[in-house]
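INFO batch 0412 | record 1 of 1 | parsing
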Amino acid sequence: MAYLSQLETYKFRKAFTLARCEAFPSVVLEGRFKSIPREQRLCPCGSDEIESIDHMMLRCSRHKKIRAKYITPLLKDMAGQSDSDYYNQLIIDQSRTTTELVAKFRAACHSRQNRLLNS
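INFO prediction complete | emitting tokens
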């Protein structure tokens, strides 16, 4: 796993690791601990989609601005693929640039969630 040595900042290594493992703070993770069926772990954005990492990275309206900064530029190079293919290419850790931008995206989302919870 190249990202463990390539991502120099601890918070980015942690963010990418949590994204790959779907272990970031979310309704999906909370549902695991509370035995809530996966299909009921919906995102608070109101989309009626499960709050999974691919939803957050590709479709969630709550992360639109952060996605525009970090993820959208990467998707332009992958035009015409399915969301599943986009997600797999973003999370696979084959490109240092992609890995770094995904890590920054996740770290920014996490910071935003913390700010919202603490306000």
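INFO post-check: The first helix runs from residue 3 to 6.
INFO record closed
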